[in-house]
Write a structure and sequence with these properties.
single chain
Length: 103
């Protein structure tokens, strides 16, 4: 069985099997960026600077592990879906609040 057939969309897009160094960095940065977006849209609260730095540090460390899983499991794809759902939720919430203020 060819390993390139088992890669997820983003792992195949970044050619992790052909160029592992650059491909893994690109996959890591993609997962990190998507994780930050999902965190900011769904879970972030106003925190002091030190606590925010600590949260993003642990988020980056967790994304290191997730990037290795993201080669064969749809981690980045799931984060894209979560980000889209949260974006739609935030837009509808803003629309609903604007309608309430108009009435």
């Amino acid at each position: 069985m060819d390993i390139s057939q088992r890669l997820t969309f983003f792992a195949a897009l970044f050619k992790v099997d052909e160029n592992p160094n650059l491909g893994m960095w690109m996959l890591y940065l993609t997962i990190l960026l998507l994780s930050v977006i999902v965190y900011k849209l769904g879970f972030a609260k106003k925190l002091p600077l030190g606590k925010s730095i600590l949260i993003y540090l642990f988020l980056g460390l967790g994304c290191t592990f997730l990037s290795f899983l993201g080669i064969f499991l749809p981690i980045a794809e799931g984060l894209v879906v979560a980000a889209l759902i949260l974006i739609i939720y935030k837009l509808r919430l803003r629309s609903h609040k604007n309608q309430e203020m108009d009435v």
